């Protein structure tokens, strides 16, 4: 059963993210399922740290992008979700290719949402796992 409360598609997410950190870093949305989002980030000059590995902060940007988009499209119309907390465990360095993240809701409540984002390299190996807590805000009067 779909969790989305607003119309969502790869094209809508892409358009929504133009002229932001998402497009600047080359993040691409790949898939929208009934209860998950998939996106990826390139490992290139825009995204590596001085030692040649994908910057840990970029993994967090990918996680927050996917989780925040998921949370906002899972909110009822007139509501929006904003980040409260994010953590990330970096499990494996990446020097080339792409890192692909899959975001799934752990909890969708009236006032909070929790999302888990699993990130993998091109070989399918887990590189980072992140958990994002979102606050759901109602319409301001």
UniProtKB/TrEMBL annotation:
<dbReference type="Pfam" id="PF03061">
    <property type="entry name" value="4HBT"/>
</dbReference>
<keyword id="KW-0378">Hydrolase</keyword>
<comment type="similarity">
    <text>Belongs to the thioesterase PaaI family.</text>
</comment>
<dbReference type="GO" id="GO:0005829">
    <property type="term" value="C:cytosol"/>
</dbReference>
<feature type="domain" description="Thioesterase">
    <location>
        <begin position="51"/>
        <end position="126"/>
    </location>
</feature>
<dbReference type="InterPro" id="IPR006683">
    <property type="entry name" value="Thioestr_dom"/>
</dbReference>
<dbReference type="GO" id="GO:0061522">
    <property type="term" value="F:1,4-dihydroxy-2-naphthoyl-CoA thioesterase activity"/>
</dbReference>
<protein>
    <submittedName>
        <fullName>Hotdog fold thioesterase</fullName>
    </submittedName>
</protein>
<dbReference type="InterPro" id="IPR029069">
    <property type="entry name" value="HotDog_dom_sf"/>
</dbReference>
<dbReference type="InterPro" id="IPR003736">
    <property type="entry name" value="PAAI_dom"/>
</dbReference>
């Amino acid at each position: 059963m779909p969790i989305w409360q607003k119309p969502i598609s790869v094209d809508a997410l892409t358009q929504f993210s133009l002229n932001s950190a998402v497009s600047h870093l080359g993040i691409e949305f790949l898939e929208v399922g009934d209860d998950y989002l998939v996106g990826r980030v390139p490992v290139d000059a825009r995204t590596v740290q001085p030692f040649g590995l994908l910057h840990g902060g970029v993994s967090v940007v990918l996680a927050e992008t996917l989780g925040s988009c998921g949370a906002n499209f899972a909110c009822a119309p007139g509501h929006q979700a904003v980040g409260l907390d994010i953590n990330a465990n970096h499990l494996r360095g990446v020097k080339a290719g792409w890192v692909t993240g899959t975001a799934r809701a752990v909890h969708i409540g009236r006032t909070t949402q929790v999302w888990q984002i699993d990130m993998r390299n091109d070989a399918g190996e887990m590189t980072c796992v992140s958990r994002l807590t979102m606050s759901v805000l109602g319409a301001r009067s």
